[in-house]
Amino acid sequence: MGPGTTSRRAAGLSMAVLAAAGGLVACSSSSGGDAATDASQAGTYTIWDPYPQHDKSSEWVELLETCGAQAGATVQRTAYDTTDLTNKTLLAAQQGNAPDVLIVDNPVVSTLAEAGVLTTTEENKLDTSAIAPNLLGAGQIGGKTYGVPIGANTLALYYNENVLEKAGVDIASVRDWASLTAALEKVKAAGDKGITFSAIGTEEGSFQFLPWFWGAGAQLTALDSPQGVAAVELWTDWLRKGYAPNSVINNTQTTSWQEFAGGDYAFAENGTWQLANAQKAGFAYGIIPIPAKDGGTAPAPTGGEFVSIPVQKDTGRYATSQKLVTCLTSTDNSLTTTTALSYVAPTEQVQAKQVAENPDLAVWVEAVKAAKGRTSDDLGTKYPRISEPMWGAVQAALSGSKNPQQAMADAQAAAASATR
Amino acid sequence: MHAAASAAARGARAGRWAAWAFLAPVVVYLLVFYAYPLYRNVDLSLRDYTVRSFVQGDAPFIGLANYAKVVGDMTFGPALWHTVVFTLVSLGFQFAIGLALAVFFYRNFRLSATLRALFLVPWLLPLIVSASTWSWMLNSDSGVVNAALGVFGVGPVHWLTSPDWSLWSVTLANIWIGIPFNLVVLYSGLQSIDPVVYEAAALDGATGWQRFWKVTFPLLRPVSAITLLLGLVYTLKVFDIIWIMTKGGPSDSSTTFATWSYRLGFGNLLPAFGPGAAVGNLLIVAALASGLIYIRVQRRLALP
User: Fold this and answer.
1) CA distance linking residue A188 with residue A209, whole number of Å
2) Which residue of B has its CA nearest to A392?
3) What is the pLDDT of residues A160-176, one digit of tens each?
4) Average pLDDT, chain A
5) Ranges for all domains in chain A classified under CATH 3.40.190.10
6) Are the Cβ atoms of A201 and B54 closer than 8 angstroms?
7) pLDDT score of A6
8) B164 to chain A, minimum CA–CA distance in Å?
9) Alpha-carbon distance A340 to A343, whole Å?
């Protein structure tokens, strides 16, 4: 199938979607269909995103089409699996056919920027002034910004009200690590299970460990600091005392959620994206921010994607791409975007609107405000090289092959040699 | 005379062209799908690829530095050991159980065809299904295996989450998946043995045990050799089962060369293509070496 066929079909499809959306009589509608054949290169803008769960009839794709129409472009959207997207983008950039607009997981931005795949906001004229600085941080390397966060999510603690009630735990008493551990002890004594999380040997494991690591006051540049070791000890202790199941070592965030949804667990560390499933779980639940070691909200790592504009040979394309991205991230549309993707908005203004619409989101907005990008603090591409030894250390300590101190010391040595 | 000779030469030349034309599709296929990817993989392993140089295409040539890095890595020793243990233990059990079942089904009792078909199920299931099922069954807290052990008063075993057990768990799953292949190939091998030989052995008063070791086993040797070789190549590169069940963990305790290569190249936010390709090439060399050993063995068998 030639590119012409694809774009014609995509154009036809976009028209169908527009018609279905109703009321959107775009000025460019007369130039759809056939015109797309001869103007297929100039008028068609490719967008890659990591949301294969949103199909062609979803709100998200509808929004893309609308924004495309407003920018006077035909949008050709392709969805990839998150891990796949990075490699696909690198390969495409190598071949010189990167997409016009790329929506990519925030810790990957620094990798792609390092590869020279992304344009800076100076070049592409994207406005980032309204974006919360802690969210923008993940896309900033060496003083330059490589995209706009489309929305954010992060981790918090879900709790099962029935289990806590049975154990006689008042959720308001859970303010720091000591009180959380005390609550887990009570739950175990009452015959239920304590807490579940994901400590799998992938980036997911690091993502889940970071709130505790940062919550202890540790820095990614010193994994073996007393604070860092304290965080590993907290988890190891929970496992040894049976407050957390041994399966956490192999749990993804999804399997960990399934354990919690079974109804026996008091707590689960999980993200915004499980909200819809929590409502279906069939028991009363609540959410609290993850407590820091000595109280207060621990900084959790930010999840969520950045919208960025990859480097093109034809720099004239940036103008339309910029319009597309602005449409997706502007204050007016951000509410639609973040609702479609179930994210917390990256700007305070829209966050306020979201909470007004859905008070349940308040705790998430709180958590996102305290959150921190993994590649922030100018770590950039050093982060992956620190993260891998870190999740390895957590696994080694939890499975008992090393003690926490030794595990973190070895991890620090490995990270130091990898980032040198 | 002259004219005839030149016509013959012309015919021969045309024949040669025709031969090349017939050969072309295969040659092109081999070049595009085998030689070039192999060349790229070797090239990848000899250059210092960062994400930047991967995109720009100007990665400097660094000789064997990636190999030195991989061999010097803390993971190398354990990964090599795990690969050897995983492969040999899997092969041994798959072959032994496969052969035992083949001999068993060779007797053709009632329902034997149905039972044999049931034994093929592991082979037919997509790996993602069987590996996920194994990982649920072996789950420390809610797995059926630990529940069954609990009935006999045996405490829970951390099949997938203990560094002492994870390698054995993935090996166990791999043995289960590999048995049908061995069963099928060895069963068809058994059928090619002339029943007359068995009859003669029986007349000479050979016991069942002797018949197996003195007749079946030697006559099955060529089939056994190819089964083991194919099994070896297949087992060396097993990736999906391990990745789905343990991701090579906890802390590398079930990492083999195949999972390590993947993790280097794709399992991290920052891909290390060079070292990843180097590990992959080591695997190819190992498979190639066993292929050469097979050819030697074949030749020795062919000689009377």
Assistant:
1) 22
2) B251
3) 999 999 999 899 999 99
4) 85
5) 47-149+303-358, 155-301+374-419
6) no
7) 39
8) 9
9) 8
Residue A32 has pLDDT above 50, yes or no: no
Do strands A193-196 and A265-271 pair parallel, antiparallel, or not at all (unpaired)? parallel
Any chain A CB within 8 A of the CB of B140?
Answer: yes
> Model confidence over B220-246: pLDDT tens digits?
888 998 899 889 988 988 999 999 999
Distance from the Cα of B268 to chain A's closest Cα (Å) equals: 7
Q: How far is Cα B90 from Cα B84, in angstroms, rounded to an integer? A: 10
Q: Does domain A47-149+303-358 have CATH number 3.10.20.600?
A: no
B244 to chain A: closest CA residue:
A250
Listed in order, strand segments (DSSP E) in chain B are none
Name the token pair of B162.
Answer: 């203990």
- Tens digit of pLDDT for each residue in A250-306? 888 988 999 999 999 999 999 888 887 888 888 999 999 999 999 889 999 998 899
Query: What percentage of residues in chain B have a pLDDT greater than 70?
Result: 95
Domain residue spans in chain B? 2-35, 72-302
Fold of the B72-302 domain: MetI-like fold (1.10.3720)
Residue A16 has pLDDT above 90, yes or no: no
CB within 8 Å of A370: residues ≥ 6 apart: A289, A297, A298, A299, A300
Cβ <8 Å between B266 and A87: yes
Contacts of residue A116 in chain B, CB cutoff 8 Å?
Answer: 52, 55-56
Cα(B78)–Cα(A353) distance, rounded to whole angstroms?
A: 54
pLDDT tens for residues B61-117?
888 888 998 888 888 999 999 999 999 999 999 999 999 999 888 887 888 888 888
Amino acid at A342: S
State whether residue B192 sits within 8 Å of chain A by CB.
Answer: no
Cβ burial A322-342 (10 Å sphere, 16+ → b, else e): bbbbbbbbbeebbbbbbbbbe
Mutate to test the interface with A, among B40, B44, B55 (most CBs of A within 10 A): B55
Of B74, B247, B271, the CB nearest to A201: B247
End-to-end Cα, chain B, rounded Å: 49
